[in-house]
Every structure is written in C-alpha cells, then in structure tokens.
Amino acid sequence: MKYILVTGGVISGIGKGIIASSIGTILKSCGLRVTAIKIDPYINIDAGTFSPYEHGEVFVLNDGGEVDLDLGNYERFLDINLYKDNNITTGKIYQHVINKERHGDYLGKTVQVVPHITDAVQEWVMTQAKVPVDDDREEPQICVIELGGTIGDIEGMPFIEAFRQFQFKAKRENFCNIHVSLVPQPNATGEQKTKPTQNSVRALRGLGLSPDLIVCRSAKPIEMAVKEKISMFCHVEPEQVIFIHDVSSTYRVPILLEQQGIIKYFKERLNLPIADQPSDLLLRWKKMADRYERLLKVCSIALVGKYTKLSDCYASVFKALEHSALAINHKLDLMYIDSTELEPSTEAENSVKYHQAWHKLCKADGILVPGGFGIRGTEGKIQAISWARTKKKPFLGVCLGMQLAVVEFARNCLNWKDANSTEFDPDTKNPVVIDMPEHNPGDMGGTMRLGRRRTVFKTQNSVLRKLYGDAMFVEERHRHRYEVNPELTQCFEEKGLKFVGHDTEGNRMEMIELEDHPYFVGVQFHPEFSSRPMKPSPPYLGLLLAATGTLNAYLQRGCKLSPRRNDSYSDLSDDSSLEKDCHTSGRS
C-alpha cells in the first residue's frame, strides 16, 4: 500500500479536496486502484448535525454515513463508493479510544494522546485503506489522505504526530507528503508573495513532516522566478513545486497536474509499476474540460433554497446539474434564489428583493427545490412550486422539495387549505407529510433514514423510469426523517399527481410525477450524491432536457443523446456511451 498525505497551509478552504481528488484521478488513469480518506479535526462524530453554513453540504454515502463534502469530490472524480469510516474525525477517534478504555483494553495504563490516540489514527488508516471501493472489489493500491484544517491548528496536532510516526512505519518508498499552500498577490503591488508558503513549510517541518511536493495555489499563473524562490527557501527541487491557478472548471486541475510531470514524479518517488503516460481516462477528462470551455448554448436553472449565501451548501446539487448540462452540450447558468424572498412578507419589508427574486424565477428555464430542514423559507418554496406547476415550467423537487410539492398540490388542487408537514405544523388537520417514528428517537445525529435504499417503480408509463433506462427499480441515497402520508395518496392520484415509485414494502412514497406537464417530478431520495461527471443523474438530466425542450426527443430515441457528427460530445462517448452509464451505474 502506498500512502499520499495531503496537508494545507496559510488558510483553510484552499482546495486540498480538489487537489487530492485530482491526484487520485491521475493515478487511477495510470491503471492503479485508488481509495481516499478525509480527516476532519473537529470533535463532532460526523457532519450530520452541522449547519450547511459551517462546512457546506452534508454528503451521504451508500452505507448512510453523513460526511464532509470532500468525500463527494473523491467519489465524483474517482467514480468510487466510499464508506463512513473513510471520514475520520477527532470525535470518532476519541470515542473509539474511550470505548476501548472502558472495555479494559488499556487496563493498568494511563491513556494518553501519545501513544494511544496516535496509534488509533494509524491503525484506522491502515485498516480502511484496504477496503475495496471499486466495483471489482479488489484491494486498493494507493490511499490518498487529506488532513483537514491548516498546519499549526491546535486540534490537528495529534494527527500530525500520528503521521510523523507513520512515515517511518510505512517506509519512505510507501509514504509521500503533499503540502498545498497559498501564494497571494496583493492588489497594491501586484507581486506574488512566497513568504506565507515559506512559513507554512517551516511549521510543517518543525512538526516532523517534510513535503515531497509543494502545490501552490494562486489566482493567476505563477512566474518561474516565484517557483525558483519557493524551491530555494523550502528546500525542494524546482520540479517538486507545482502551480495550480484558478481555472474555469475543476475538470482542468488533473490536466494541469499531469502537465507538470506529476506522473513521472510519483513513479520514481513511490516506485509505482506504471507507464510515464496516463491511459485514455485522463484523455477523456481533457476532452471534457476542453468541451466545457467551448460551450455556447446556455440553460438557466433557478435553485430555490434557504442556504443560498454559500454555494458549498448545495455542492452536489450544483455538480449534478453541471454534469447533466455538460452531457447535453449546454453551459449551466445556476441562479440561487433565497426562498424567503419569494414570500409575500418580504414584499412588505423589501419590495426590491421580492421583485428581483421573482424576476429570476420567471426567467429561468427550469426550477429546482432541493432538500433542507426547518420551516424558514418553506412558504417561498411552495410559491415557486406553484409557479412551476401552473406555468408548465420544468420542475424537480428533491427530498423536502418533493414533500412541499405534495403540500402545494394538496392546498391548491385538493382544496386542503391547511395541508402541511407535521415537521412545520404538528396540529394540521391534513398532515400530508408525516414523521417516521422509528427514525425519530429524540437524538439528532445519525437517526434519519440514511444511505442507499431501493425504490421500485409502480408503473411502466413513467418518465423517471424511462430516464433510468426502463429499470424495474433503482437504488439511491436517502437522508430524511419525514415522508408523504401513505394513507392519502389515492386522493392525489385521482387528481393527476402520480406516485410512480415506492419502497420495496410499498409503504413509502419515493417518486411523484404530474400528468399533463412537461416535467414535474419529485424524488424523496438525493440522486445528486450518485452523479458523476461522465454519468449524470437521470432525474437531473431529465430536468435539463426538459428545460432545453429536448426531453421528448430524447425519450423517443430510447434515451439516446445521439450526438451529431463532429459534435464535441462524441469525443466523450467513444469507448462507452454515456447513455448506458447514466442508467446502469449503481442503480439497477
């Protein structure tokens, strides 16, 4: 097993996750089996109870793990399925050690950070690195480990010490450290400054780790003189200094790394049995990145949510939309709309915000209402759903978005004016959305209906079923504590809102479709977590197709994108068609 540790300096949020994912992608393109581990130094057991404004979205894995959004980057870039133990937190490590202490495993000894916490970290990494993450179920050969936070943070010290020891346990030829740092360029002088990187590397060395590669992040391409200066003052060869500037899309990052000779470096440094050139996989990435930058046609989607101030709150939703837009040769114009600004109360308080929000909604080609928790902004989401339903705008509701679509239909089509979810109104006379008692024991963390579950199609005549390749069932990831009231579904179906998918027992409603509408779809699961750059999620692909007016043609062709001759999309589908991939990957 070869281990690659990615650390970060100067500031957090510098892009360690994308760098780690890109390195994994490059090594996978060389024919190696790659896995990934993310270490978060916070004391929370997992990311499930975070506000999205704290750490961005909560990413959900197949096994129900609620983890950091960087694991979503790993899965999308590497096309693998990780597990909750691939996300290590301080809380998990301390809980593990304390449980062993209570069990008597350390009887007679004083339990300390060194060696007990540091040993637990090393054992966890070595064990989890061996767990297969590919469909072939073979043990990985490379483990990319990202250490969250910034070098020098007090909460990260036990992990730094663990890897200081681990580099000797694993042996030099099996362990490599990559340090990601910032090279700022103040507007006052316009000069790229290396001092923050020098200080960061000095701090890392003082803790016992020496970087093998220094990846410098910057707004603009870095000059050769800056590279030589970093090489001299950080005690590394010039070829060990890699530059990654801000680019138009993250798809370009693996290409930039490969162009700077990273494959040759890893081959020699870790004694890898690979060729100097990557396989066709990286070539497909390059074609995809090139095509992304050449797109001319635009499709606008309005994302109506409550966490719109930080784009990372809906990272997977954005990526799923982007994957689908790319598949149909369109550039995505995603408009974030704060759902509270669509509510009548906002008009009275700030009419400018109110009218601007509605202007965005009205000009969008499609509308998406994602998942979420809490009552704030729900009435605005219902207003947006009502607009999509009555004006025949393509609409996709995910999790809470589907539940609110049912609430809106009940109020405006069944005339149940007080219809609501018991999450927002426990005393409503028409509880069209109810809680699931077995998933609401009182604790908040890890008690929802989580992870990959099977959804069975009830009917042949379903748009979603066709988009999923006419499968009998699909398997997607869930994260919810409330569901549509199964006792009331017949009332909805008589008026044209069809529940086209349910769980294997037939008790839980998983998918809705509205008759006589171009595309009005809701899903209880989160299909965005399974979307991949070259395997877009079918519900999201359907939304983009409907928004561009091409859904019917796509369905009539048997769900074939049918690229025209000389169309840039054909480059992507030479060896295995995207149509097949997006229907079958991990779903049926």
What gyration radius follows from the Cα positions, in whole Å?
25 Å
CATH architecture tag of the largest domain: 3-Layer(aba) Sandwich
**CATH topological fold name of the largest domain:** Rossmann fold
Distance between the ends: 32 Å
CATH class of the largest domain: Alpha Beta
Total domain units: 2
The biggest sheet, with number of strands, parallel, antiparallel or mixed sense and barrel status, is: 9 strands, mixed
Short description:
This protein has 588 residues and is an alpha/beta fold. α1 (16-29) runs parallel beside α3.
What does it look like?
This protein has 588 residues and is an alpha/beta fold. The chain has 2 domains: 278 residues, 3-Layer(aba) Sandwich (Rossmann fold), CATH 3.40.50.300; 290 residues, Rossmann fold (3-Layer(aba) Sandwich), CATH 3.40.50. The protein has a 9-stranded mixed beta sheet, with helices on both faces. A 7-stranded parallel beta sheet has the order 5-2-6-1-7-8-9, with helices on both faces. A hairpin with a 5-residue loop joins strand 19 and strand 20. Helix 1 packs across helix 9 and helix 5 crosses helix 6. The radius of gyration is 25 Å and the shape is globular. It starts with a strand and ends with a helix.
List the helices and strands and how they pair.
Blueprint: E1 2-8, H1 16-29, E2 34-40, H2 52-55, E3 59-60, E4 66-67, H3 70-78, E5 87-89, H4 90-103, H5 113-128, E6 142-147, H6 157-170, E7 175-182, H7 195-206, E8 213-218, H8 224-234, E9 241-245, H9 253-259, H10 262-269, H11 280-294, E10 298-305, H12 315-327, E11 331-338, H13 344-349, H14 351-363, E12 366-369, H15 378-390, E13 395-398, H16 400-412, E14 420-421, E15 431-435, E16 449-457, H17 463-467, E17 473-480, E18 482-484, H18 489-494, E19 497-503, E20 509-514, E21 520-523, H19 538-547, H20 551-556, H21 578-584
Parallel strand pairs: 1-6, 1-7, 2-5, 2-6, 7-8, 8-9, 10-11, 10-12, 12-13, 13-21, 14-15
Antiparallel strand pairs: 3-4, 15-18, 16-17, 16-19, 19-20, 20-21
